[in-house]
Amino acid sequence: MENKNSFTMFQDMPVSQAVMKNVIPAMIAMLMVLIYNLADTFFIGQTHNAYQIAAVSLATPVFLIFMSIGNIFGIGGTSVISRALGEGQQEYTKKVCSFCMWICIIVGVLMTFLFLIFKSNILEWIGASEYTWNFAQNYLTIVSCSGVFVLISSCFSNILRAEGQATKAMTYDRTDNRKSN
After folding, report:
1. Element (H, E) at 130
2. What ranges do the domains of the chain cover?
3. Which of 17, 26, 32, 89 could form a disulfide with 84 if both were Cys (CB 3.0 to 4.6 A apart)?
4. C-alpha separations of 48 from 16, 41, 131 in Å
């Protein structure tokens, strides 16, 4: 059952079991984002500088914007892919996945440039003070430059879950590449 898509999974398994097979890894992935944010705060907290911690909090909405845009493409792609898998259109699903990948790269690069160009305006809008400005500016630059990767990760986590591979959305198994070659 490991390589079955969600359409086949819901045919062969009881619905509650198939839902749990998809829900639990999705919940774990959401917890990992929370843990990432806590780890950020913990390690920066080791500096004992409240302004640096505030800067992380100020830049977090930009990170969440990248995640939400990735989710838009992922959930939209998921809808199309799920219907195509149900109709047995494997080639079309590959095209949709490619489109999602390229649109995430294009939009991510565009958003990165916009966030970097309007960094001062964004810092004003999010409420950076004179004490947090430099820290927030540095952290915002780092978050903005990683935006493409955040978009792709958010998008394809949704797509993998739609294909019934929720566990793969959280992990990478090197043996999977050898099986497909």
Report:
1. none
2. 6-167
3. 89
4. 47, 11, 14
